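Second opinion, please. Please look over this fold, written as tokens:

===
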Amino acid sequence: MTGESGRCIAPGGLRSLPRPALCLVLAVDAVAVAITVFSSMSAAVTRTQWLWFAVLAAAAVAHLEAVRTIERRREQASKKAPYTNLKSLWVFAALLVLPLPLVIGLTAVSYGYCWYRVYGPAILFRKIYSAATFVLASAVASTVLDGPLLPHDLGSLLLVTAAAGVWWLVNYALVVVAIGLSSHEKVPVRQALGHPGDQLVVASALGLGATMAVLLVHEPWALPAPMIAVLCVHRDLLLPQYLRASRTDQKTGLATPVYWAEVVTAALDRAKLSRTGLGVLFLDVDKFKAINDTYGHPAGDQAIRAVADLVRAEVRSQDLVARYGGDELAILLPGLEPGQLLAVAERIRFRLARTPVVLTATTDGQPRTLSGVSTSMGVASYPDDGMSVEQLLTAADGALLQAKRNGRNQIRAAGAVRMHGVSEMPSGKP
């Protein structure tokens, strides 16, 4: 994935990084500087190559300026995952026609312009590291190509394809390792690897880069035409990545309340057409405030993340879990009848009550283990408890409130006096 560290590296200055991450960042930066110095000492640049560099730099700046609004929003929304971008398009195009020092120069131009026009108050060392990963990736890919090389037959095409793969692998590996080492909390492997759909961005960027290089050398007058394709790729592939971020709660990876409500509306319409059931479950962590007050809010964040992971493990792929509030989750369960909904709710409650939760981000720095987490739940189903989204959500919320008023650690079904799982379960109280 043509990525950068973006906000992936832990917040704060360079000294805030864990020691392994600090060593990685400094080592990669040092190697990038060494590559720049040594490659510049022996490079011979022709006048034509300087002209190509100027054209590619101008095109890269024009591209970044045209999409800077999207990029600024994506920068603000990025999380602990590779921040995919299309700067690699111009860098890889340069790699095929220019000596390595000019490729590094184009990387500096791209990141320098983004710093001035896009990133704003981003932490400098993160962007320096991202640029350094581009330098290392370009250097390794250049050795595969053995200098500038345009595809002109099958053999050269395969070589260019191999160089593109190597460029991607080096860049991607350095970014993912940085994410894993820099976080003070364990980052799930799946999250660190990023969204699989972002691989389309990689293929598009590197493929368009090769196309740009060929046109630059043989038909430079035609370069404006693929620029339109570049802007379309940026909007159609990177804007959805930003939208994914805006639909996702950053602390838990669950859906946001707004997005969840939109999905509930669509699911209810489908249920009415297909005459199938649909359930809504509201879940509240009992006395969650006590965890925050006793161990601190970072520990509370760990607890709610653990709850989110356990709940996701107990539902189907077609179900949608959202973080509806600080300690409240909402679950959409399409296609289930009332009895099935209660069975799912009980399974979730039992799993949370019996699964230990380890808190490492405590205020005193000493790890603590909760024997389990007690939860109260309210369940509502279509059509029994409501025919509209508002009615269903109101019914589920009312059932949740009733469960809390009746002593917590239980499940209440809307419109029925039914209680499940009272007592005898670990409450998870700190």
